[in-house]
Amino acid sequence: MGLIRPMRAKTKAQFCGAGGSGFSDAARPSHTLSRPRSATSSAPVGAPIDLVHLAKQTCGDEALEREVLSLFRSQSSLYVACLRRAKADDERRMAAHALRGCALSIGAWHVARLAKNLELNDQNEQNEQADSVLIDLAEAVDRACFYIKSLDDQPA
């Protein structure tokens, strides 16, 4: 076990630098510096996606960022559709869990929080609350996808 840990640390240092963030503040992509930040998150105030988190996850590789965001756009709508037509609690939990994982990977914190609420909600006891959370989740996914599209419209 002692051999595995140093290899992982070395690999992360190789690809993301010694600090693990992928780049120094001076080399941070411009889209992560120009927007105001909230006190509790590195996401721009009101932004549905934390671009600083995404840059850390992709080690600053902008092409990879765009690919991951594109995957989120295509997959998130499929998961919302699965949630809408889910008949069994297990189907709903699996779709919500998958959507939550996708959202966490790109820093879509609000989507992840709503997906977690839906995942943990007992649909038999709180059907109205689950429906309300699903509506909120679908709106949050739409906002995140619209935000991603607005990023795509910007020059690379």
Biggest β-sheet strands, sense, barrel: none
What gyration radius follows from the Cα positions, in whole Å? Answer: 18 Å
Cα(first) to Cα(last) distance is: 42 Å
In DSSP terms, counting alpha (H) and pi (I) runs of 4 or more, how many helices? 6
Give an overview in words.
This protein is an all-alpha fold and 156 residues long. The protein is 65% helix and 0% strand. It contains 6 helices and no strands. The longest helix has 27 residues. It is elongated. The N terminus is likely disordered.
Features:
mainly alpha, disordered N terminus
Briefly say what this structure is:
With 156 residues, this protein is an all-alpha fold. The protein has six helices and no strands.
Question: What secondary-structure arrangement, pairings included, does this model have?
Answer:
Elements: H1 4-16, H2 51-57, H3 62-85, H4 89-106, H5 109-120, H6 127-153
Helix pairs in contact: 3-4, 3-6, 4-5, 5-6
